[in-house]
Every structure is written in structure tokens, then in C-alpha cells.
Amino acid sequence: MCCDSKRRFLLLYATQKGQAKAIAEEIWQQAGTHGLEADMHCISEMDKYNLETEKDPVVIVISTTGTGDPPDTARKFVKKIQDKTLPPDHFAHLQYGLLGLGDSEYMFFCNGGRTVDRRLQELGAQHFYDTGLADDCVGLELVVDPWIDGLWLALKEALQLQKEKEGMNNAVSSSLSTAPHAVHELNLSSEVQNLRLEDEGARGSDILSQKLDDINLVASARDTEPSLVHSVPPVSQSALNVPALPPEYIEVEFQDTQGENPHLSSLISEGTTFEVPVTKAVQLTREDAIKTALLLELDIAGTAFEYQPGDAFCVICPNSVNEVGELLHILGLSEKGDDFVCVKVKQGTKKKGASRPQHIPERSTLKFILTWCLEIRAIPKKAFLRALVECTGDAGEKRRLQELCSRQGASDYTRFVRDSNVCLLDLLRAFPSCKPSLNLLIEHLPKLQARSYSVSSSNLYQPGRLCFVFNVVEFPASPSRPVSRKGVCTGWLAELVAPLLHPSKNTLDTKGESSSTEKISIFPRPNNAFHLPADPSVPFIMVGPGTGISPFMGFLQHRQKLREQHADWEFGETWLFFGCRHQDRDYLFKQLRCFLENGTLTHLKVCFSRDTSASEVAPPKYVQDVLKLSAKEVARVLLKERGYFYICGDKKHMADDVSDAVVDILSMEMEADKLEAMKILAMLREAKRYLQDVWS
Fold this sequence. Notes:
By secondary structure, the chain is of the alpha/beta class. Helix content is 30%, strand content 17%. Among the domains are: 7-163, Flavodoxin domain (Rossmann fold, 3-Layer(aba) Sandwich), CATH 3.40.50; 540-694, Rossmann fold (3-Layer(aba) Sandwich), CATH 3.40.50.80. It is built from 19 helices and 22 strands. Mean pLDDT is 86; it is low at 168-222 and 503-515. Keywords: Amino-acid biosynthesis, Cytoplasm, FAD, Flavoprotein, FMN, Methionine biosynthesis, NADP, Oxidoreductase, Phosphoprotein, S-adenosyl-L-methionine.
């Protein structure tokens, strides 16, 4: 413990994609300006701290992953504190504050943080500061910034009480009170805009302010609307409070030597990777469909890859070749893309515990790093924008970047950067005088994440094969992002298999399939709950519009094979509710009729939201509408027969509506009020009989 115990606090973070770590680092950087020292560790480094004996205040920043799980780095910690043998006063000595990160698009919002918070309370720990829950759906900074602002006074009060308990004299504690004052009371809604962010990078008590008078900014009189590159009053006329300039900590050296790039498996810490060939590619939608859906079949025979229907797996994908090329061009490194570079920690850096990011190889080509290691499509954080200010030559562009990362420009950042899905390339196009160094990209761009897909097959039905279905994601151009683009992984996969698809793609069966020798790298991501009932006699309902039908194809294939192999078994009824826009354009699996005919599927209910009907009574448009038409049967399966209910698909525009429909059905069929129906649904979730595999 290197920190001064008189003003020390323990800072722990648990991160999945780097956000919690970045916020913890921000807290660590700010601590010094408030006369405090943070002893910072990843929560997985349990050999470097001990909560059982910790006397100083503890600050925890923790994210949520999956459908509500703590991040992988917190699994051992959570398992340890959930030990049922621990007494209720195990952490009675502990005082802590917790900041949870999550996304309200998902059912179990901030559940990683809530789980740890609840368990610490059960074991006797006390809050010295109110728990903050930040929502990535609307912008983490709306809660994170004011939570950090209020942290300092709470910490100093906690340390003061601690010293008084220990009988220390007031002289030491009074020296602590000379640190800048911060707002203590938390109001995370209407008061957010009134909270003032002090610049942690300023020397002494100076605040970094950039007034309009300080620069020669000429704006056209017609520019009355704000945009990514243009601001209007009051932001354009305000003195700005900007975040600290993050210390640089990476050094990149070009080398004359040659060699080989690392294997892709070395970039993955989640487990074993498998390089497998694509054996089939089918376009499931017609050319005039709004979305293009593809089915790919992978050959996993001869590998140790195992899965169950309902599982997911991850595809290791590269960034776009064109985007990497453009980035190299803007950086002035077009001729050096194939040169090897050595990445190491910069000597004398002021960043605490600086180390080379695990996803960056120590030695590889520059192009390899930009293609396989960095998420160049990531929305830049404010700390990145702050660093880019220093790389921008034009005064007007510099001012606008300062505004976007400032407290005064928070709404502009949300509107023109975050909500517009702007990435680094978009910024460099919009601010052409900005020429960042390569080390800044490595420091601020997160790891290029593998993309997760639901398995759409059964190994029992198709031994040695794995199928999955996806829509090719399209991002149309916008004022902040004038270039349209496809999803990183879906665009790459579509391009990879394009030569393999049948020239005539106007059929919805498998005539458009082609064999190939193209290979992709994958690794398993088992789903602990989204599986068929262990008892085959238990009935179940599946709701999967669009590509949400994907895992249910695996369910039905598996069920069909079990029926063939075990004629003496009793099998429960099966319901499938499927929907799409047009019956003749994007009805993805018309072979569902085969499952219906052979008895594998008991009931098939379909709807088409964009088809017109000449009937007097309009047919139902959406799966939730069809569910309500089968209300008695749905209630019977769930309540009387203790069946299962599965949902797969879009969270925002479908899963919540289906959940509301189920509540209405339960309320109506039980003749109970909605509150009681919601309690029943919560019980079904708790019993793992109402299961979701959703995305936003």
C-alpha cells in the first residue's frame, strides 16, 4: 500500500469492455486535486487488497454484461462474497460507495452493481455515499459526472469520521478540508445541468477556461443551428469547464525488421478459438426486402467446439479495409501500414499502473493493430475528445472540440456525437486540422470486440455443423456522419460470402446456397439458461420475429431429432409466434411448415406488419397482437402446465411489448389487477421459465 494512509481510499473497478476502468482512472486522476490518494486495482486482483481488513473507504465502479451478469473480471469476487457461510457482520467494518454501469434497454439494469451492492449490505457494510446507477442508453455521463463531483466531500467526511474514531488530532483532518469544495447532495435528474465540473488537470485552483474572445472564430450569419462542427449561444459564448488532459502513457516505435503478426487467438482471453470454414451461405430475404438476412453454415467437425441449442458464439471480425486505409491516410502513414511497430509503456508517464493494453500485441504491423485490435468505430469518449484538442491546429476546430468535451457542451456531445453514432473517422473528416498521434489511438480506442450471434441449429440434427442467421446492419448517412456504412461484422461477413451466394437471390428456400473454403475464427459463449426444458414433456412458447427466430430453429431441429430417437417419450406442446414485414419478402423460414406437419411444432402463429389486407377485420400486425389472440392458451401453458416462455429479438421495439402483452394476458385470464400479474411474471423470470435473448 503505497498511498498515504491519512488520506487514502481503496478504488476497485470491474470492467467488461473498459468503461468502468476508464471511469475509475478518471476518479484516480481527480483524487489528487482534492488532496486524496486512490489505491486503484481491478477487482479481480484480490491478492492486492483485502476487504476483510480494509479500514479506509472503498469506492467500487462496476459494469454489467450479458443479460444482467457481473463482468467477467468480477466473477471470482462475486462468488467469494456470495458464500452462504459468511456471517451477517462480515463486512461491518467496511464503508463504501458504489457506481454501477448498465443499459436500461435491458431488463436487469445495472444488475452487476446491484448484486454486489445488495450482498455487501447483507454482510454488514455501510454506505458512506449513495449508490449511483449510470445508464448507457441515455449517456453514462449524466450520472457519472455528478456522482464523481459529489464523491469528494463524502470521502473527506468519511475519512474525518474514521480519524475521529481512531482518536487522531484535528490538525491532520483540517488540512484535508482545504481541498476544493464539491457538491455532496446527489440529485441525478434535473440538477445535473447545474453541477460544475472542475478541471482536474489545472494547476492549483486554476480552471481551464476558453473564452470566445481568445480565438479568431468566424461564423457565418446563417449558421443558426448547432451541428457537429458548429455551436450556437450559449455554448459558443461560454467559458468552458473541460475535463483533465489524460496523461499519455503509450510509446510506438517503428522497426525495420520483418516477421509474422500474432495469431488471432492471442487476442482473445475468453477461451479457445476455432478457425472453421463457411460451408454454406444462403440469402433468406428477397432483394426488395427492407433488410438483408443471411444464413451461414460452419463446419465444426473435427474440432472440440460444443454447443447446445440456445447457446451463442462469438465471431472475431476485422475493421473495414477501406476505413483502415482512410485512417492510415489521414494519419500520414499510408506507406507504413505493413511496417512492424513495437508498443510499450512510455517512460516517465504520470498514469498510475500504466501498462500496454492486453489487446495490443507488443509487436505487429501497424495495419494489424488498426484492423484486428482497435474498435475504430467506437463512439469517442470525452477524454478522447480532450486529447484530440491538443492535436488540432485550427482555432475554430479546437474550440468546438473543447465544447464537445466540456460540461457546457454536454447536450451537444449527446446529440452530435453519441446519438449520431459518430466515430473517430467521422471526427477526423469533420475536423481536418486534427492529426492525432498513433499512441493516442491505442490509448483511447477500446478493444475491437468479437460479435455474438445465436446458434440457429442443433448438433443432434446436423452433426458437425453450426448455423447462424443475421441481418446485414445498415447505418444510413446523417448530418453528423455523412458516409453510410454497414455493421463491422455483418458487413464483413456479407462481403466475405458475396461471391459464394447464388447469382439469383430471389428465392426464400436454400437454392441460393454455395460451398466455400472461406474461414472465420469463432469461440463459444454458452448461455446458462436459454435452453430447452430439461423435461421434454414440459410445453413451451417461443416468440421470435425477424432474425429472432434463429435459436428456435435449433430448438425445433433438436426436438424433431429427439422425437425420432425416442418414440416412447412424452413431448409437451410447442408454440411459435413469428412475425416479419412481408410474407413474400422476408418470411425467413417457410420450412417451419415441415415442423408443423411432422408434429414437432404444435402451433405456428405468424403475422406480417407491412402487408395490406382486404378483409373487413384487419389481421394482427405484431407478435404481441397474435399472443393476445391466444390469451387463454398462453395462460394455460404458463400457469396450469408450468410451461416455459422464450423471447428472442429486438429489445426496444419488441421484447418490452411482448412482456406487456403477457402481463395483460395474465391479468385478464387470472381476473387480477396488473400489479398481481406483474408479480407472477417476475416469479416466472426468477424460476427461469420466462427467458429472453434480446439485443438493443
